[in-house]
Design goal:
With about 170 residues, this protein is of the alpha+beta class. About 30% of the residues lie in helices and about 30% in strands. Bound molecules: coenzyme A.
Length: about 170
């Protein structure tokens, strides 16, 4: 199989990010709070601002985009980076793309001095929860309602980075 490559996108790559982000929202409306129609209407300035607000990681196989993830701040803990917006094209699921994206996010978080990585996921999203558990995330204590989704709830999953693979701070 061809090699999976993950690269961080620069501000000028905003159109690449826009394209895969809109594909993600169209393919998996239940997985994200944002909607395709909402983000399709964003102007160039908004996309450029998003590129600098968080790190955007693009996964490619033979130069074709197959997945995306973002890395930003955790709201509650400065030592923790937050992974979000994870999506893999349906054809590339189960091929290691999600692992490559999250590993790149974990490496970048560790390189920036973070000791933990957090990831919010809907408790209804069995595949994402299974993937995160398999990768090494553990359920944390925080829960929040999934905005605009009735009683649906998100759970924070947390993973220690680097050599310390023990129980992460339970928050
Ligand atoms: C979540 C996502 C990124 C994971 O990537 P992936 O390539 O599908 O992940 P993997 O195949 O490596 O791992 C999925 C795991 O879930 C398991 N799984 C698959 N379908 C499942 C289901 N319906 N219920 C429970 N587990 C399931 C697989 O067996 C696998 O576990 P294993 O590695 O122990 O065998 C991808 O499925 C995706 O893009 N989904 C749509 C968008 C999304 O939900 N994003 C997350 C938003 S928080």
């Amino acid at each position: 199989m061809s090699e999976i490559r993950v690269r961080p996108l620069a501000e000028d790559d905003w159109q690449n990010y826009r394209s895969i982000r809109l594909a993600a929202l169209e393919d998996s409306p239940d997985a994200f709070v944002a909607t395709h129609d909402e983000e399709e209407a964003f102007e160039e300035d908004s996309w450029r601002a998003r590129m600098t607000r968080s790190e955007r990681l693009l996964a490619e196989v033979d130069g074709v985009a197959v997945g995306v993830a973002s890395l930003g701040e955790d709201e509650e803990d400065t030592g923790t980076a937050q992974l979000f917006g994870l999506w893999v094209t349906p054809a590339a699921r189960g091929t290691g793309v999600a692992t490559a994206l999250v590993q790149a996010g974990a490496d970048a978080a560790l390189a920036s001095g973070r000791t933990q990585l957090s990831y919010w996921v809907s408790t209804d999203n069995a595949r994402a929860v299974a993937f995160a558990s398999g990768f090494g995330f553990r359920p944390g204590n925080r829960r929040r309602p999934m905005h605009g989704r009735g009683g649906e709830e998100e759970i924070v999953m947390v993973m220690a980075l680097g050599d310390d693979r023990g129980q992460p701070t339970p928050f």
